[in-house]
Every structure is written in C-alpha cells, then in structure tokens.
Predict the structure.
Amino acid sequence: MVVTRHWRRIVKADREGRRGFASPPSVATTIGGPTALELLERLTGGGIMPHAQQILETHPRTLGVAPGPLVACIDACFDCAQSCTACADADLGEPDVETMIRCIALCHNCSDICISTGRVLSRQTEFVPQVARVALQACIEACRLCGDECERHAQHHEHCRICAEVCRICEQACADALKALPT
Amino acid sequence: MVVTRHWRRIVKADREGRRGFASPPSVATTIGGPTALELLERLTGGGIMPHAQQILETHPRTLGVAPGPLVACIDACFDCAQSCTACADADLGEPDVETMIRCIALCHNCSDICISTGRVLSRQTEFVPQVARVALQACIEACRLCGDECERHAQHHEHCRICAEVCRICEQACADALKALPT
Amino acid sequence: MVVTRHWRRIVKADREGRRGFASPPSVATTIGGPTALELLERLTGGGIMPHAQQILETHPRTLGVAPGPLVACIDACFDCAQSCTACADADLGEPDVETMIRCIALCHNCSDICISTGRVLSRQTEFVPQVARVALQACIEACRLCGDECERHAQHHEHCRICAEVCRICEQACADALKALPT
Amino acid sequence: MVVTRHWRRIVKADREGRRGFASPPSVATTIGGPTALELLERLTGGGIMPHAQQILETHPRTLGVAPGPLVACIDACFDCAQSCTACADADLGEPDVETMIRCIALCHNCSDICISTGRVLSRQTEFVPQVARVALQACIEACRLCGDECERHAQHHEHCRICAEVCRICEQACADALKALPT
C-alpha cells in the first residue's frame, strides 16, 4: 500500500537524521479512536509536507502578511497548481475526453495562475501589496471557475472531485490572504 | 503562535465539512510521549498537505512510474520550487546580500527546474519516460548544486539550512523516481 | 558583432530551407536612408521572431479575442517575462545591488505573472473571458509597478531602461487585449 | 488583416516615441524585389520582437556563453514555450482530439521545460555551466520528441506543422548553446 510504503520512507529518512520529518510516532501511545499513525496518515496522505512555514519563520524581514494566512495561501497555491496539472492530464486519459475540454482549459489556466500567485506571496523582501492584491484576485477567480467546472464532473471522475476540493481550499486561502493584506 | 493559529484554522475548516482536512485529533487519546496534536503539528508544521497522491490514485490510466516514488518526487519538486523561491527572496533581505548572489542564482534556477519537473511527472496520460528521464536528471543536478551552496550558508542563515534540506530531499526523491522509470 | 553573427545564422538557416525565417534581404534594394538590412536588424535586434501569430492563424476554433490585440499581448507577455528575469539577474550583478532589491522583487513577480498571463491568452479552445480578464488586470498592474521601479534606475542601469520599456509595451498590450475581450 | 493592423500599431507606437521599435520604413526606399515593408512583415509576422539581446548587451558581468548562441537559445526557448502551449490548446479543439493526446502531453512538457531552460540561460550573474548543461540537455530531448510527434500530424494540422518547426529551431538553438558552454 502506497501510504505505508511512503510512511516507511519517511520513518527511514528520519532514522538517518534528516531534519524536517517527524519522528516515527509510537502506535502504542493512543487509546481508542484513531491511532496517531492513522491520524498522521489521514492528514498527510503519505506525502511530503511543504516547508513554506519553516522558511518564512526564518525570514530576515518583517512579513507583509500575517504568517497564518500567508503560509496557508502559499501551500494552497502550490498544491492547487499541482492538482490542476494532474487533473487536466487525467481528463485527457478519460474515454469522454471531448466533454472534458473546458475542464482541461480551466485547469491549465488555474495551475499557471496558482504558480505565479504562490511565488508572488513567497517573496516577502520588498513585499508590494498592490501586486499581491491583483495576483490574489486573479487566483480567486481562476480557482472559483475551475472548481465550478471540476464539480460538474465530480460524480463520474474522482480526480475532478478532489481537484474541485483543492480549488475551493485555494480560493478560500487566497481570500483569507487578501483580507490580511495591509491597506 | 503560528502553528496553533493555523491548526485552529484547519480544525475550523474541518468543522465546516471541508473534505481533505483531517478530523481534529482528541488530545486525550494519547498517553505519555508527544500528544497526537504535537505529532501532527510537528509533522505538518501547520501547513496544508499536498493532494498529489489522492489525484494520482484516481488516474484513469496505468501510471508510468510506481506510485510511491512518483508521489514523493512530485511533492518534493513542488515543495523545493517554493522553498527555493522563498530562500532566494530571504537572501535578498540579508545584510550580506553581496555574498549571497550565487545562492540566489542557484535557488532561482532550481525553483524553475523543479516546477517543470514536478509538472512533467504529474502528467501520466501518455507518459514518455525519455522526457521524464532528462527532466529528472536536470532536477537532480540543480538540487545538488543548490543544496551545496545553501549548505555553505546554513550556519548563518537558517533559511539556507532549511532550503538545503529541502533540496536534498528533492534530489533524493528525483533519484528514486529515476530508478523507478521503465527502461 | 552579435547582430551580424546572428543575422548570418538566420540567413544560413533560410538557405537550409527552414520555413519561418525571412529570405535574406538584398542590401542593394534600398537607396538612401537605412538599408533594408539595417531596418531589419534595428527591428529584430538579431533575435528570433515569435510564432504566436502563425499558430493562432491556424487555430481550429474561433478566437475569443481579435487576433491583432491577442497576438500583440501574447508576444509582449513572453517578451516581458524574459526581460524581467534578465533584468532581475543583471541587478544582482551591479555594485549597488542593495539599492536594487525592490527592483529585483518587482521584476520576479512581473515575470511570473507575465508567463501565466501569456499562457492563459494562448489558450483559445474554451476561452473563458473571466479568467483572461483577471489575468490581464494582474499583468497590467505588475507591469506598471515594475516599469515604474525600473524607470527610477534607467539613468544608471541600461538594462533597467530597456526593461521599463518592455514593461510599458506589455502593460499597453494587456490593456488593449482587455478592451478587446467579449463582455 | 492582422499583419497590417499590427504593423500600424508598431508604427503608431514609434511615432509616440517608444524606443525599442523600428522607425517606420519608407516604402519608397526600395527598388524592385520585395519592399522593406514587405521584408519586415515577412520577417516579423506582425509580432513584437523579443528584447533578450538588448538586455544581455547591457549586462554588468561577462556573459558565460557567447552572446550569439545565447540570445538565439533564449529567444527560441520562450518562443517554443508559447508555441507548445498554443499547439496543445489547438489540439484540444480538433475533432480528432482522441488521436492528439500524446501530442498534447509532449507539448505541455516541452513548454514547461522550455520556460525553465530559457530562464536558466537568461541568468548570467553567477552563471553555473553545470546547471545550464542539464537544462539544455533536457530541453533538446523534450523539443526532439515533441517535434517528432507534431511532425506526425503536420499533414492534417497546420498548427502542428508550425509547432514542429519551432521545436526544431529550439532543439538546434539549445544544441548550439550547449556547444558554446565553457567546459
């Protein structure tokens, strides 16, 4: 199973002393309910956690946006960029590809705009709120339209259901960051 | 504290029924050792987990690479793209910016190559191993050189220390994916 | 001299029958004023002309924007993405790099937003005007702010002078495309 | 006609004193053969010339690659990035989209790799030949495979014929730049 295999990889990496990965949780430390391992796997899906927050915490200048909304927005943008690339590609592999053209187009646009927005927000030295504002506004709209279209296909394409979710998370994270911008 | 604030946000999002976030763990379910909450925070750093694995699990075609190394590589590429953008920017804010020029240049190059590699690997419909191979080879070299340079500054710039780690993780994840490519 | 060397390359490529390059102009065909060769070199700077227009002219669907403003906008976005990357890099090599930090940050943001905007406009199958609108608005603002900052350094850094020009061209081309969007 | 309209735009821009555009050529300055205007339109296709060369000529440091191959490579990478995005999109609008999936996938990959390569080569402050080398190698292979696939569709899709040409130009320009790298 992928999760387990990958988890072993994280555990192994940790034993080798790589920082940035959690210590392997003791499964015996929980009583009833989901175990810590189960919680962790449910939360992480077996993947690698992004490091945006760790780097931002060490930034030499005062951040231009509150760190909570900022990190959430950056993580969401890079995640959504990947999801939309993957969803557009999965659409291409579906037997009903002719009905997925609009979804593919919106996913590609959303992915590109998420990359640029995630990078703009990642730059906190000489942060210019006006640039961040228009980037976030573009990203909110791109995520909204892409999320709407993916949702229309959520019943028959599971990747569209997940991608719609990711778009909603990113739309919300960008809206939160927009509110947190200095006026 | 950032982590806590962000964790509350995740918890709140979950209460609103958003899928893709874990249920808030009961702090009472652990005895001794770190609590589940502590484990989760340590693992996640308060950020949003990427969804690469979830989408790939629903892909309509057979994946061209084993899912474990594939997901790790995609996650690592997008994470490293973000970290290198953030580290290059943090370098710009340091008082000794003149000594950081090579680090900045290597971070920018690494970030761009990570984006293109992460996207190439994300496309599994009509996966062409030859393209993946050269993309991965480029990414391994970019991460290696960027990691080496960041490491040189790890003692005096914490963001460089973290970025070096992220580069090492990405270099390794790309090497694992390269080994997993069909010949 | 670069121009001449590169021009010879174009001429040579043409002799090899590559389409997409002009025939070498006869220098003897002009009287007085600049020769055709001089005009061509002045116009092209010795570079390769983009092919956006040629491909768009063969697009299977009706374009969502009038082709004139569309091509100009796409060409300008990709040109500005390159210029801003190059200008940010040249800034790093200047002795007064500490005074160029804001310029570098704005150039990087402008470059990323130009790439995403140029790609969004390049996609004319299932063109969604709302996405194009927000992308163009973001690009106009990013180019405006980057152009303003580069202009401040135009007197002492020639690359900033040129980059400011390219930003102005792109800002205008995006504004023209915005006006040409269907309402 | 697009070319004419756009040409008027260039002329108009020039009258407004924007630098970077050629002076409007006097049609009367040529005798026989194509007029300078015809030559210019044939060469430019009505588009905007990239400014890579102009900015590189003002770079504060010694370039790491001979300027001729460097400019040709950068221009070709950005041009190919745009063409591949546009061709992948045009493929989506074709009635035989199911037969174009491999072309779409290769175009997307080529576009992403061209962007990262064009940017890596654009950075000449602290130029690191090893990074440029692997980026160029990846780009050569991506362009070769994408060009081969587009060529297979050149008979029935004009955008594929043009995109194949652009890929060949970029493949060659990257090979020339690779040869020009310091060893």
